[in-house]
Design brief:
The N and C termini lie far apart (about 40 Å). The protein is mainly alpha-helical. Helix content is about 75%, strand content about 0%.
Amino acid sequence: MGRQTDRTNRAIYSAFSELLNQKKYLRISMQEIADLADVGRSTIYSHFETKEDILTSMCSDIFDKLVTTDHITTNEPDTIVVAFLSHIKENSKVIKGVFFSEGMDVFVDFCRKYFSNILDEHILIGYDEKSNEIPKDYLINYLITTFVETIRWWIKNDMKQSSQEVAGYYLKIIT
């Protein structure tokens, strides 16, 4: 992606996030996003066909950066959970708008996908279903659901706690 395309996408993401914090997802028009991003309507359509595409792209961008950078460099659960939560806090402006809108399902689906991979590849290495008597896919679903609800609680409380504190709460519950 070129620098100009990247700048335009960031402007569109920022405008969309701001609008999500002001009004319901279904009431936001592509024209409003274009106006607030200070781009032409044809420009916004050359980047995204629908606002669903914007939302999907925003979520993908957030989570891709988490797994393609050095955020996850260990198999230690506490370090991984702190890194994941820190990344969410760094992107809180976007995430708050998405999380409490009709687009929340898209965010939750991305969270499930990426956190599932992190659990499988870094935290549950060597997990033995037979000795634990819990299917791995059930355990992953439980851990992700609990994690998403932890994020929801944290956002509702204006993210007052540090990433380390929230990770501590989550890890105490699941261990």
